[in-house]
Amino acid sequence: MRALIFAAMIGSCYLAGCVQRGDVLTRDSDKHDASMATLGTDVSCGDAHAGAIIDGTAYFWGQNDQGQLGLGNTQNQARPLPILGSKAWRQVASGSEHSCGLDTSGQVYCWGDNSRGQLAQNDRDSRLTPFAVPLPQPATQLSTKFNHTCALLINAALYCWGQNDEGQLGQSDQPPAGDTTANDALNPVRVGTANWRVVDTGQGHTCAISLDGSLFCWGRNSDHELGADSRIQVREPIQVLPAGPWLDVAGGQNHTCGIMQDFTLWCWGANTGTDANGGPLGHAALQLASPTQVGTAADWTRVHTNTFHSCALNQSAEMWCWGRNAEGQLGTSDVDSRTTPVRVASNITAVGTGRFMTCAVNRAGIVACTGANDVGELGTGDTDRRNVLTPVSPGVP
What we know:
Blueprint: H1 12-16, E1 18-21, E2 24-27, E3 40-45, E4 49-54, E5 57-62, E6 77-82, E7 89-94, E8 98-103, E9 108-112, E10 127-132, E11 139-144, E12 148-153, E13 158-162, E14 185-190, E15 196-201, E16 205-210, E17 215-220, E18 233-239, E19 246-251, E20 255-260, E21 265-270, E22 287-293, E23 300-305, E24 309-314, E25 319-323, E26 338-345, E27 348-353, E28 357-362, E29 367-371, E30 386-391
Antiparallel strand pairs: 1-2, 3-4, 4-5, 5-6, 7-8, 8-9, 9-10, 11-12, 12-13, 13-14, 15-16, 16-17, 17-18, 19-20, 20-21, 21-22, 23-24, 24-25, 25-26, 27-28, 28-29, 29-30
């Protein structure tokens, strides 16, 4: 997830217990306990778990086989539970099977799976509770979606750690020979010497925007995740053209999307899936070798993506999504995939896209999710799939 956007107010509908369906907030007392009414400000989705900041506390739910929920155990949870500790949190980030958080002092913590060093603890041992990441200065932004993690520091330096077989840490090193884990970074390593203001992690690649608005990406490029460059792997930052300047960027499994400072939306790479109908690019093409504008709108502010679908916010706080929808992750009240963006909800302040799910926070502070729910990753207290944004139901620790 990128920089936190705070919700504006607690609305009376949220206090009563509501479900969001398009523009309509309707009461659903069976799914949302009004006594748990709280203010959500950030949300993040991983493979099959999710997290949110609610009243300054980090809550996680869903799959927990690697301790990615930060609860001190490995039991799946169908309701959000607060992670161990008494920190006040600013941002949460969910990887494949690990999680990280940024507290209000700028300290980064990570927990869960550590097989690729994604917790930055100088080993590969998983952790069931949050452990501090050793960084030289406080962090301002955090990103993880798969098996590596990056943090942007207050001095605009960028540090990353974790999986590095495809150059996703930008270290200008040689590809590993034989052992694909040999180049993993078990501690944070600095990426170049540039000053950065936005970072986002894909699966085998990473992208960041420099202070002057230039966009750079590095890592796997077999599907043009890095743009028009013909190399299938680039292990140091290279500039992505057009020059921009760029406002936001989001890395996915085999693709990238970004927003220029004129508020136009662009995507490139592969439409992950069997065909373009279920892809995250916002186009019918199977692959886009260079950034290609999505539609004609020029009012986009944030973009989010993961593997099979994408979502974006515009200046009116409307959430639009596109791509695979077989699990209901687009929140369109059906399971029909979309090749181009479709309007899903209004008054949205934060979005998280997972592998087969989407979560969002609206201006009333409601944290709601839609999509797959096999292990409780929607936080609704059950394992039933949803095809509309449905408020999470926090549990009692």
